[in-house]
Design a protein that fits this description.
binds pantoate; 2 domains; Rossmann fold; globular
Length: about 290
């Protein structure tokens, strides 16, 4: 595996591959890699000749008081995992390479980011959109892979890539990969490590109660009732608060208050102790 931390080096390597007609897949990450990331890498490997993984803890997507300073940084361990997955190139730029002095541009996909995590974390999605647009321009991949775990992020990136012609024009250029879960159903996340043992055990209620809510909606229960039952069940299970529990159209993320007629998603963010957990599940159209 080659490693680049300067744009010039990245571009030289990637343009050599492109000149040879090779197909390139990008897996953007912030490091602290777990099985969820490695699943993205394996999926990338199956779809392309060359796999580039970026590791960049993006300051622009952390708000004041969020965990930027504490966010786990483990470049050496991450790098070893990527070597074992036969990744071709690790792109790990320092902050000043991504945001040089005087950097002044923001990318924003306002329509998909006003609600849910966007409402709770002002500026977060602009930070994600800006860095992902930069990564796409830097690597110019044929396809890029993202976890469905961050469903609002995935929907926003799909729209941005389409609106700005950012990734080569294939219908399947932005690939969403299903969430990888622990045996008790909890979605893998770099933030799970902030949970105490007791909180970790209680957190399994999140996917369990979400499953129950999707089954209720699919069986014809009123959406508002299913969501209210879900919120109460999470509080009863030990969650401190529920930021949102909503049903949304899977593409536009418009909130749905009735049984869905298009593929939909149940989206939840809830706080276990000081840790904010998010998850989502598909809800089939009736
Ligand atoms: O999902 C993430 O890890 C980050 O939001 C991403 C897409 C790598 C952008 O920093």
């Amino acid at each position: 595996m080659q490693t680049a931390d300067r744009l010039e080096v990245l571009r030289t390597i990637v343009s050599g591959w492109r000149a040879g007609g090779e197909r390139i897949a990008l897996v953007p990450t912030m490091g602290a890699l777990h099985e969820g990331h490695l699943t993205l890498v394996r999926e990338a490997r199956a779809r392309a000749d060359r796999v580039v993984v970026s590791i960049f803890v993006n300051p622009a997507q952390f708000g004041p008081g969020e965990d930027l300073a504490a966010y786990p940084r483990r470049l050496a361990a991450d790098s070893a995992l990527l070597v074992a997955e036969r990744v071709d190139l690790l792109w790990a730029p320092p902050v000043e390479e991504v945001y040089p002095q005087g950097f002044a541009t923001t990318t924003s996909v306002a329509v998909l980011t006003a609600d849910f995590c966007g409402a709770a974390r002002p500026g977060h999605f602009d930070g994600v959109a800006t860095v992902v647009a930069k990564l796409f321009n830097q690597v110019q991949p044929d396809c890029a892979l993202f976890g469905e775990k961050d469903f609002q992020q995935l929907a926003m990136i799909r729209r941005m890539a389409r609106d700005l012609d950012l990734v080569r024009p294939h219908a399947d250029a932005i690939i969403g990969v299903p969430t990888v879960r622990e045996p008790d159903g909890l979605a893998l996340s770099s933030r799970n490590q902030y949970l105490t043992a007791e909180e970790r055990a209680a957190a399994a209620a999140l996917p369990r109660e979400m499953q129950a809510a999707t089954a209720q909606i699919a069986a014809g229960a009123p959406v508002a009732e299913a969501l209210a039952t879900l919120e109460q069940a999470l509080i009863d299970a030990g969650f401190a608060s529920v930021d949102y529990a909503a049903l949304a159209d899977a593409e536009t993320l418009a909130q749905l208050h009735e049984q869905p007629h298009h593929p939909a998603r149940l989206l939840v963010a809830a706080r276990m102790g000081r840790t904010r957990l998010i998850d989502n599940l598909p809800v089939p159209a009736v």
